[in-house]
Structures are given as C-alpha cells and as structure tokens.
Amino acid sequence: MSDSNTRIVVRTHSLNYAEKRLFAGIPLKNYEVKKLIDFVRFPAHLYWRIKKKPHPFLTNLFCDFGLNKYQLLHFFNAINMGNQPWLTTFERYLPRDAHHPGEEPKENWYINYVLKRVAHKSCKKLIAISDYAYRSQVRYLEEYGKYQNEILSKIIVLHPPQKLMIQHWEEKKKDPDFTVFTIVGADFFRKGGMEVLHVFERLFKEGRNVKLNIISSLDYGDYASLATKEDQTKALTIINKYEHISHYSAIPNEAVMEILLKTDIGLLPTYDDTYGYFVLECQAFGCPVISTNGGALPEINNNEVGWMIDVPLFKDGRSLPKEPDQKITFSAVVEEKLYAFVLEALNNPGIIRQKGEKAMQRILKEHDMDVYTKRMEEIYTQALA
Fold this sequence. Notes:
Elements: E1 8-12, H1 17-24, E2 31-35, H2 41-51, E3 61-62, E4 72-76, E5 79-80, E6 86-90, H3 108-119, E7 123-128, H4 131-144, H5 148-152, E8 155-157, E9 179-184, H6 193-205, E10 210-215, H7 229-241, E11 245-248, H8 253-261, E12 265-268, H9 277-284, E13 289-292, H10 297-300, E14 307-309, H11 324-347, H12 350-366, H13 369-384
Helix pairs in contact: 6-7, 6-11
C-alpha cells in the first residue's frame, strides 16, 4: 500500500456509518478520506438542539468558504455549495429529503438549487448505491423537467462492498438445540420489530425451539411505524416475558459480529429501508434473511438466498404504508408470511444451509471489497483528471 504521506486526501463533511462503509473505511491504495470543517453544520446542529430533529435541508449542504485545502470532496446524500470538484454517493434521489417537484411549493428553492448544483461541472460523479436509487433519480428528473442529460450522464450504480466474514458455512457456531434469529436496528419498530415479537410470542406458546436476538435501543416515534412510548412498553413486556429472547441495547460491533456468527436467520421485515446493509452483513456470515420487498431489498435478497415478504409497494417502490388501513395490511402480511417462513425453516432445517451458502456466494460475486475499492480509486482518479 502507498505511504499515507503520498496518498491524495479526499475530504468529506461527515464520518458516520454510511460514509465509513461506502468510501471512508475501505482499503484505498492511492487515496484516503478525511473529515473537514463544514460551516453549515453549525446552524444544522443548532437547529437539532432546538427542534430535537435534523433540519431537512441544512444537513445535506456543504460549505467551507474555501478555507479547507483539498483536491476532491466526497459526500453521502449531500451536495457542495462551492465550485471545488466533488462527487456524491446517494441512496434514493437528490435532493435528499425533498418531496417530489410540485408537492411542497416551499421546497422549490431547495430543489432548484440542489439540481442546479448537481448539474454544474464541479460535480464530477453521482454514485447510486442501487438500481432502485438510479430509477428514483430518473423519475425525479423526469418530473422536474430540466438537467436530465447533464445529471444522468454522471450517474453510475455501485452496490456497497461487503467482506465475507466466514469462508465456509461449517465455521458458524450453531446452537444444536435451537434455531436462532436476529434483528438489528435502533429504529426497532420501523424494522418490523413489533411484528417480529408477535410472531415469536406465538412460536414460544407453541413450544417451538427458537431463540430471538434483538440488538436495538428500541427507539420509537420513527416516521414509518409511528410507534409510541406505549408500543415500546408493550415490546419490553414481551421481551421480558420469554427467556429465549435476548435483548442488547448497545453493544460493540465485535459483539454484534459474534452474535451473527451464531445466528441461523436474519430478520428485516422493514416498513421502509432504502437499502438494508444488515442483509449484506447477515449473508456474509451465511445467514439467510427474511425481509420485505421495498426499496433496493429485491436487489440483494430473494427466495433463493433468503425469503422475501411481498408487501404492497407505493410511491418510488417503497413499502412505506402511509394510511392507517395500509399499515394494518402491512402488519398483517408481515406477520402471516414471517410465521410461515419460520415454520418452513423449522420443518426443513437443511434449507437454512442451502440458502446460507447461496447468500455467501452472492456476497463474493456482487459485493467483493477488492473490486469495489479498485472501482472507487478509478472514480477518484477520473474526477481529478
């Protein structure tokens, strides 16, 4: 690997999970990604302190008045307000957090500004993390009616990388007496957590040999499930009632990996996810996943490598239920299909290995870290040419 002093520094304004996973934490040879000062972050943070929620637009803008030194900027979902060379990786469409054109007139200035910046020559590349993200951007530009050619010519699709965590399925630390399931995510209820608990309470009452791991702070109030404090209390009541439910509020990543090594099947019956990184992490451990079919999930999960719960899809291919009757239907379908898929696995345990090995094969084929890193190096080099 090149010496760090000879590597070109690419700057970003945030180093959260997505940035680290998609570009800041990959083993680049000729480049390294470092965080810099972003002056928009100050009013954005002040807004968060006052309103207790992120500002819908400020968190997606970058401005440093040219005070930082760098050759290239790389963001996740955000755009550069200056004219230094930059690129963005995005998960649905840009402008991030805006409604579709015409739906909210008060957002017109933000939509116009962002798309003009994305069309500007300083924006060198747009990296969609899925075909779903690409399609969403195409639809958005068609509705907007301007800059289609300028912006679409910059977009490529590059799925996130994932290291294979075991080389052979036999490396898994299986429980000889129980089939082990795991669900992960702070937004427990958005991830379908309440539906999971209802299904597993039924399984426990039937005397099934199953265990459930929950790695979550059990946050409530998310935009999708609209869960309340009462829902959290109900969830904790079920969790505390059964000895074969293990709940971890906050544990190191190493501990999460150890749990996945012991897991048979991952669970992501989510109300709304643009991608679903957890699916990749499970598959890398030979764990097939039961997921819903919204967003990019059909691109990384299917009935060959896991199980897919087909729920009704709405605008932009999202599974997000907006109306009360839609939510009732969503929950009912998830609980019915999740229960059926779990029974299928319990009655035919060999299928877990079949799907798990196929899941590992797709990680090798579709998410190879070396291939991804090489492609990212090429993108940076082209942006600086």
